[in-house]
């Protein structure tokens, strides 16, 4: 543990050679006195509630709460915290870079439990692989580095955390960036700049992703050498799939284009609701689906 600038940071990593017998891999801090949460407030505060579905969704004074409501897409989730009621103390998990998620499974849009105040303690959870609706086989190896940060001076920034010293520690299963990884760069075309443009790479050992620019330009995170499936998404809508090979110490060029008729209306379509974004945003109350149960009074 290193103390600096009024904060205490714990740099962490987890190495596994097989799936834990419990069927998932996670690290949990159980903290007392920190009853609030960042960034979603009380959505995962189940204290004093009555279970209404699977002992996972609770009714608290007419509002539904769940530990699952604290989840965020892994491509977007960089920091989440338990806080005190005045938001002066923050206890947070941070994902400093691609290495924090490269050994997980499920891809860029997967999500899982992050926070839950249940009345006795606040569970601040870092999921590495999950048994909740898995979409891929788990990956073994080195998970991380990831960081647990405690601060009194505001919300810690994931981008300010330096994890480069891991390169020299000779940790089991850890793959250094220098000399052991390569990059993929290119341009994504055929998708709308009105939506986030996501490029995703994966194989049996690793997963990576990045947002492309509005012009479609992208550069991957540093990836270990090998062959990868490469996918293009218009937001969460799959628009193209191809393969690419990565060599250590070099950068491969691989442009990717949306495959017709992936983003066009086919003749068999009776009607189209909303846009091709892979999300149910055209439905009533779609904005509430991730944070509220249908029985919520709101």
Structure notes:
This protein has 298 residues and is mainly β. It is built from no helices and 21 strands. It has 2 domains: 2-168, Beta-galactosidase, Chain A, domain 5 (Distorted Sandwich), CATH 2.70.98.10; 175-298, Sandwich (Immunoglobulin-like). Strand 8 (79-83) and strand 9 (90-94) form a beta hairpin. The protein has strands spanning 2-4, 7-16, 25-31, 36-38, 50-53, 57-60, 63-66, 79-83, 90-94, 115-117, 122-129, 141-151, 181-189, 197-202, 207-211, 217-219, 223-224, 226-234, 237-246, 251-253, 256-257. The chain has a 6-stranded antiparallel sheet, with no helix packed on it. Strands 13, 16, 17, 20 and 21 form a 5-stranded mixed sheet that branches. A 4-stranded antiparallel sheet has the order 15-14-18-19, with no helix packed on it. Residues 1-5 have low confidence and may be disordered. The radius of gyration is 20 Å and the shape is globular. It is 0% helix and 39% strand.
Sheet with the most strands: spatial strand order: 1-2-12-9-8-4
Q: Report on the biggest sheet.
A: 6 strands, antiparallel
Rg, alpha carbons:
20 Å
CATH topology-level name of the largest domain: Beta-galactosidase, Chain A, domain 5
- The rounded distance between the terminal residues' Cα atoms is 43 Å
Name the beta content range.
35-45%
The amount of helix comes to under 10%
Low-confidence runs: 1-5
Q: What's the β-strand tally?
A: 21
CATH class designation of the largest domain: Mainly Beta
Give the class from helix and strand content and strand pairing: mainly beta
Describe the global form: globular
What's the CATH architecture of the largest domain?
Distorted Sandwich
Order of helices and strands: EEEEEEEEEEEEEEEEEEEEE
Taking all residues together, what is the mean pLDDT? 91
Total helices: the number is 0
Number of domains: 2
